[in-house]
Amino acid sequence: MKIGIDRLSFFIPNLYLDMTELANHRGDDPAKYHIGIGQDQMALNRVSEDIITLGANAASRIVTEQDRELIDMVIVGTESGIDHSKASAVIIHHLLKVQPFARSFEVKEACYGGTAALHMAKEYVKNHQDRKVLVIASDMARYGLASGGEVTQGVGAVAMMVTADPRILTIEDDSTFLTEDIYDFWRPDYSEFPIVDGPLSNSTYIESFQKVWNHHKELTGLKLEDYDALSFHIPYTKMGKKALQSVLDQTDEENQTRLLERYEESIRYSRRVGNLYTGSLYLGLISLLENSQTLSSGDRIGLFSYGSGAVSEFFTGYLVEGYQEFLMTESHQEMLDARKQVTVAEYEAIFSEKLPENGESAEYTSDVPFSIYKVENDIRYYKQYTQNLAFIS
Ligand code: HMG
């Protein structure tokens, strides 16, 4: 019995900042942002959105009435947790009205957390084939105003329903992983923003890819020409391309061109959103599946997950017969197109807003489906303002 991703969706806030405007404002050449880094727009959230609202909004697009009874676990991969103790998954479980006899928890290892959650889900479903696991990768990639990483910021969540006999992508048992204790990007408990060694993070990403890719090749015998596409963790869209290019001399020119074309399809959404940390690889996968005109059922996709610190994994999946029917291409593209552009001044003001702390209260209104409507006694209260676009069951 094959296990894998049965449903797949993402959610991003309805505001964005244009990268030309940011570059001009910061005194940089816009070509650096668009070409050197490969980012065109940055998703921006309001203060009444957090990883819980993003995750609930992404998941509510794929969770059907029947799923609520069949989900045994809600796992959230994140590095933007809102509480040192209580897991966001518990609140999302409540907001989505999942049956009570379920496990709900968070996993953390920088951007790798979503992949850890996905594989944990797969192992559970292998032994409980009539049950489902809801995996959410939800994050706010924030480096700070005018910081080195600012141009790579982003916000959003991806939700995946993991089941037996999946209708989109099987996940194979062929992962290769790597752990190396490296300080390329980390965020001490006291700090709102991460500490980043940009050049080290870039080189560690590429070296980690080469290591897990070559190890995978040795173990499985699969070469670049055996893949219909490769999908990467995308901290900014130039990054995955550099990693891919670093191994392309292992194949001929025709395969190089083909894999680079698929890579371009996998970064279309990320160019307009930015880094989603745990969700980035899966936003790339959605972009690939929804924008490629050449992929078809039975195709083999390779996935590279990277979390600073550093843990990485390479694994494969096969596209299932009829997978196109279960994609949400139109509504995803509508969500991207319907966003409102903000000025740099608006971005700076919205980015700097904070929820009340130390027991203070505040109330909010919103036009985003799930949002925070008040904070009181250090508890965030959530409300569903509008229905999210429902997905077919
Ligand atoms: P920087 O100093 O702003 O940029 O840092 P740069 O000077 O290195 O330039 C970037 C590229 O733009 C270069 O291209 C320049 O040549 C080019 P490259 O040589 O690398 O191919 N460039 C131009 N191109 C066209 N026209 C121009 C122009 N000027 C320059 N006029 C950096 C960039 C990515 C380091 C910074 O933004 C940063 O620190 N970002 C955050 C860290 C990051 O994303 N690292 C990626 C790997 S780590 C990772 O993936 C994990 C992560 O997701 C976190 C987690 O796991 O939780 C981040």
UniProtKB/TrEMBL annotation:
SUPFAM superfamilies per UniProt: Thiolase-like
Chain residues that bind substrate: 148
Gene3D superfamilies to which the protein is assigned, alphabetical: 3.40.47.10
A Pfam family it matches: HMG_CoA_synt_C
Stretches assigned to the Hydroxymethylglutaryl-coenzyme A synthase N-terminal domain: 2-164
Protein name as catalogued: Hydroxymethylglutaryl-CoA synthase
Residue stretches spanning the membrane: none
Similarity-based family: Belongs to the thiolase-like superfamily. HMG-CoA synthase family.
GO molecular function terms attached to this record: hydroxymethylglutaryl-CoA synthase activity
Annotated (3S)-3-hydroxy-3-methylglutaryl-CoA binding sites: 29, 143, 242, 275
EC code(s) of this entry: 2.3.3.10
Taxonomic superkingdom: Bacteria
CDD domains (UniProt xref): init_cond_enzymes
The entry's keywords: Transferase
